[in-house]
């Protein structure tokens, strides 16, 4: 789906580039022609510069169709949906324009404010729609189901928690120039009298340990770590900037590149690890002093491409475009798409990414060099990172489809969309329950959980649920230090399987073929349940698989996850360690004695201070990770505070939280409260025995229970009965559409929706009044999908033909449709027209040969017969045989020539 989007955006930008100067120059602007011309020229130049970089980057990936380096693989995994890419592009254009105007020292007339300039740039760059609040639908349905983008959850603050909005700031950012430059951008700049240490040096001297240095958890299973990684991908994704310099080719700090410098004594090779800064939010990262009368300034903010809420966006996506692509419109009602090429012991697997998208995943051993290696397609683009993540994504895909089938059978009057939304609502609730009830108390410890989270007291519209920058960039990345260097897969007896030995993590990155061809999901789930997690103790923070072999497929080079985390914190302007301790009411740690009070391992403290020299200089991710655990926790006091504060905000600030009384009925909440991750595993895998608590490590069989004894949902609580109101007759069925019942302020409401491929014309909802229904039902009309210029349904290689309720992608011979039914691929045979052409060509050649043969022979035959001898010198020889028609001459002349040795004329 990426290449059509790129092509469509190119066309839009091309038109904009051609028409924009003429449109703007014909409008009455706010100031004189000289200022106007300068602003317009700067804006046009910014558009060209940004688009050239964006399309060069995307085009390079599309041309190569594979990922050649670990840093490119990282960029690919963080590539946002089309809406996110459009936002990133607009922000880059706005920032480049403002910076360029500052360099020109533009003087504005007295009656023109800097705000006018910014509004104009925001509008023309495409930023303005993202800087304004969205329009929220005020329907019964909008109060029943959350929007896929997370917008309008809070009626007074509709962007809180929505996708493609800026991460929240709990403290002012720390940038070297006060606006955008990260800490460490200028190596000569001193902090408390000392330069910041290079992050790669911090990794090598404090964080990195050999793969064998693992302290295994005596209480918790590896499922605890993987759930943290999975749920982190439900809350935050900061896309990388794609404009400016190519960060694969430079070791200089040139926007958007902030490369990780390698130590001088590093082995011969590259001098740095590539690093691209996170994309900025629209209007942020601009300097007030750039424009002479421009007082407005905004520090650089980073975009979260996902919804902040615990809403299972890992399953359903965070944009309407992603959701449309994930749903199964052609198959069973309300379900999600599944893989059509592979099954896992009869169970569904995740579908593949489109064939025309860049391939990021490793091919199976023995596959041809040119063979494509598609990744799994899920609500989050990182689903294929490691087999455990892919298994968890697969589990929830199956759970949605299981619920959709059961709910549809229970309520046959429900439309496909109602089935989908109700199943989605249940899956989202289960994500919330598992995370807040089962996961968070084990990470924070019981005391810190009571202090920072506490019991649920209802929805609070004054609480901002937006994920904070420090949570996404530092605190919740504590789990990276808990990642085991081995991926363990077990047999049906929960023992090591000789056919599926443990995998070093470096051999498992982006390898979906392992899940498909090496036993499926079940061996991975057994390993997560029955093998202990790694304890992130300060002296064993991160193994070599993550610091030396991150995202290594078959190409040279690697990345370092620890250095990436440290550099990302500086890129995002996170203040130092002590600033966050003060926010949480903890005393700052300045001296070695102070630090020893929080980090009991003296060797770790000494190594940290040897590098940073001052407690305030320590990066928050390293400082929080090094603290001693709280009782019963897997984090220290700082990260327990930040994570707890964030979890409370995500719960209390979510209008659709499962415990909020209008969201589910009392009977439904009671059933949901009985459910568990163990039950989800039972319902969607081949495992017949599981621990009652999936996060508690146990030995098989004594610590495992039969799935028959694990409580499950009684979906009878979701059976809908419609109480007929005598004042309103039974609603009419809408052709190519459905309706669902809803209740609004005690009134009976019908909310109509159209089948996929149709759009609603008329009033979406009708209400029962004393005089009957207050409006006529709407009608559903066919949508011409082929006319969509932004997201065309077919790949450019195919021709789109609109059909009733759908569309059809057609290919010209000899091309045929690929598995995605949208892309044309070579069939490997000659086109039918070629066979016809060959036949006609052969016939033509034959005809021409015959004509040529006949004409030449006629031209060469002798006009009269002669019987006189011919004189050659002094001798007389018999007369030469005459030329006749070739047909009759052939035999006769041959006989005569053989009889008396005379020459035979060549009739050709």
UniProtKB/TrEMBL annotation:
Keywords: Calcium, Disulfide bond, EGF-like domain, Glycoprotein, Heme, Hydrogen peroxide, Iron, Membrane, Metal-binding, Oxidoreductase, Peroxidase, Repeat, Signal, Sushi, Thyroid hormones biosynthesis, Transmembrane, Transmembrane helix. One of its GO terms (molecular function) is heme binding. Its cofactor is heme b. InterPro entries: EGF, EGF-like_Ca-bd_dom, EGF-type_Asp/Asn_hydroxyl_site, EGF_Ca-bd_CS, Haem_peroxidase_animal, Haem_peroxidase_sf, Haem_peroxidase_sf_animal, NOTCH1_EGF-like. Residues 726-782 form the Sushi domain. Interacts with DUOX1, DUOX2 and CYBA. This is Thyroid peroxidase. It comes from Heterocephalus glaber (Naked mole rat). The gene is Tpo.
């Amino acid at each position: 789906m990426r290449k059509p989007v790129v092509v469509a955006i190119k066309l839009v930008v091309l038109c904009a580039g051609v028409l924009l100067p003429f449109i703007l120059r014909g409008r009455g602007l706010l100031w004189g022609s000289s200022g106007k011309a300068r602003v317009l020229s700067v804006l046009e130049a910014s558009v060209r510069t940004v688009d050239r970089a964006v399309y060069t980057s995307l085009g390079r990936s599309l041309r190569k169709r594979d990922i050649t380096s670990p840093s490119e693989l990282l960029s690919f995994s963080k590539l946002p949906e089309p809406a996110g890419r459009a936002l990133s592009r607009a922000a880059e254009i706005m920032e480049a324009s403002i910076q360029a105007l500052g360099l020109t020292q533009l003087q504005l007339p007295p009656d023109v404010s800097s705000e006018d300039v910014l509004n104009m740039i925001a509008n023309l760059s495409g930023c303005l729609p993202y800087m304004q609040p969205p329009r929220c639908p005020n329907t019964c349905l909008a109060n029943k189901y959350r929007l896929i983008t997370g917008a309008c959850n809070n009626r007074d603050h509709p962007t809180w928690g929505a996708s493609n909005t800026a991460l929240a700031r709990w403290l002012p950012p720390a940038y070297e120039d006060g606006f955008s430059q990260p800490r460490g951008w200028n190596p000569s700049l001193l902090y408390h009298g000392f330069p910041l240490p290079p992050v790669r040096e911090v990794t090598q001297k404090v964080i990195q340990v050999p793969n064998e240095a693992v302290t295994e958890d005596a209480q918790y299973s590896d499922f605890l770590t993987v759930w943290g990684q999975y749920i982190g991908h439900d809350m935050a994704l900061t896309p990388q900037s794609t404009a400016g310099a190519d960060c694969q080719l430079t070791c200089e700090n040139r926007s958007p590149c902030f490369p990780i410098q390698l130590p001088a004594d590093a082995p011969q090779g590259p001098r740095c690890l590539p690093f691209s800064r996170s994309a900025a939010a629209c209007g942020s990262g601009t300097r007030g002093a750039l424009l002479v009368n421009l007082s407005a300034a905004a520090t650089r903010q980073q975009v979260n491409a996902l919804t902040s809420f615990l809403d299972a966006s890992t399953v359903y996506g965070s944009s309407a475009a992603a959701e449309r692509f994930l749903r199964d419109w052609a198959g069973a009602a309300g379900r999600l798409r599944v893989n059509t090429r592979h099954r896992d012991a009869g169970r569904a697997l995740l579908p593949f990414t489109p064939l025309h998208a860049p391939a990021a995943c490793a091919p199976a051993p023995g596959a041809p060099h040119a063979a494509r290696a598609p990744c799994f397609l899920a609500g989050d683009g990182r689903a294929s990172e490691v087999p455990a993540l892919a298994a968890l994504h697969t589990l929830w895909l199956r759970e949605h489809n299981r619920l959709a089938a059961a709910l549809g059978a229970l309520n046959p009057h429900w439309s496909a969309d109602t089935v989908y939304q109700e199943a989605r609502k249940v899956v989202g609730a289960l994500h919330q329950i598992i995370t807040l009830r089962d996961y968070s108390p084990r990470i924070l410890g019981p005391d810190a959980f009571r202090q920072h989270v506490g019991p649920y007291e209802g929805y609070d519209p004054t609480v901002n649920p937006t994920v904070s920058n420090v949570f996404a960039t530092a605190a919740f990345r504590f789990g990276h230090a808990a990642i085991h260097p081995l991926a363990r897969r077990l047999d049906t007896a929960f023992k090591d399987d000789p056919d599926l030995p443990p995998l070093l993590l470096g051999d498992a990155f982006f390898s979906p073929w392992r899940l498909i061809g090496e036993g499926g999901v079940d061996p991975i789930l057994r390993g997560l349940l029955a093998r202990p997690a790694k304890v992130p103790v300060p002296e064993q923070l991160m193994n070599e698989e993550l610091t030396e072999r991150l995202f290594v497929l078959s190409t040279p080079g690697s990345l370092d996850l620890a250095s990436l985390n440290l550099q990302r914190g500086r890129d995002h302007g996170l203040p130092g360690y002590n600033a966050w301790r003060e926010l949480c009411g903890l005393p700052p740690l300045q001296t070695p004695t102070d630090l020893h009070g929080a980090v009991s391992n003296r060797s770790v403290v000494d190594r940290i201070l040897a590098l940073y020299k001052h407690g305030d200089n320590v990066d928050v991710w390293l400082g929080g990770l090094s603290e001693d655990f709280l009782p019963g926790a897997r984090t220290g006091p700082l990260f327990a505070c930040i994570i707890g504060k964030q979890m409370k905000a995500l719960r209390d600030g979510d209008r659709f939280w499962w415990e909020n009384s209008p969201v589910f009925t009392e009977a439904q909440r009671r059933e949901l409260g009985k459910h568990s991750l163990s039950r989800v595993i039972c319902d969607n895998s081949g495992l017949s025995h599981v621990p009652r608590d999936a996060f508690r490590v146990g030995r098989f069989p004594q610590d495992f229970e039969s799935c028959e004894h694990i409580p499950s949902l009684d979906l009878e609580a979701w059976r809908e009965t419609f109480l007929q109101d005598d004042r309103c007759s039974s609603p009419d069925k809408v052709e190519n559409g459905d309706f669902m019942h809803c209740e609004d302020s005690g009134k009976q409401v019908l909310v109509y929706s159209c089948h996929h491929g149709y759009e609603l014309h008329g009033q979406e909802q009708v209400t029962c009044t004393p005089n009957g229904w207050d409006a006529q039902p709407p009608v559903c009309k066919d949508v011409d999908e082929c006319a969509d210029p932004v997201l065309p349904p077919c790949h450019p290689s195919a021709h789109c033909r609109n059909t009733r309720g759908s569309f059809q992608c057609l290919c010209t011979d000899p091309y045929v449709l690929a598995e995605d039914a949208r892309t044309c691929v070579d069939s490997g045979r000659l086109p039918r027209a070629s066979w016809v052409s060959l036949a006609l060509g052969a016939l033509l050649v034959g005809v021409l040969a015959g004509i040529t043969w006949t004409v030449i022979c006629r031209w060469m035959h002798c006009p009269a017969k002669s019987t006189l001898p011919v004189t050659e010198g002094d001798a007389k020889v018999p007369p030469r045989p005459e030329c006749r028609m070739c047909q009759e001459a052939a035999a006769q002349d041959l006989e005569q020539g053989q009889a008396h040795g005379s020459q035979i004329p060549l009739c050709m």
